[in-house]
Amino acid sequence: MKPGLLVVQLQIEALLVALAGVAVGTGLALMLIIPLSESGMPFPIEGMEEIMQGYALPDRLYPVFNPRALVIASGIMVLGTQIAALVPGLRIFRLHPVEAIRQET
Hints:
Helix 1 packs antiparallel against helix 3 (about 65-90). The protein has four helices and two strands. By secondary structure, it is mostly helical.
């Protein structure tokens, strides 16, 4: 296979892994956010209520799903994965096939 095609294959594999990570991460996040957005997360430390009232903060935190944050974070993660996959991909161009086969990692 030509080096250019190897780089393309590496980038596609990295993209698929990143998209799978986005899908799994989004699913797990929604499984946590949806129930907690209704019941809230209490502070487990006793006596924390007085401190929280002193700063005018609630005794429970209610997470909110933000689609914009999901898109931005997912895009940054996919972009970072593509850049990270490009580094070894560019190394492919410098390798000679025989040396690559003999090279120990």
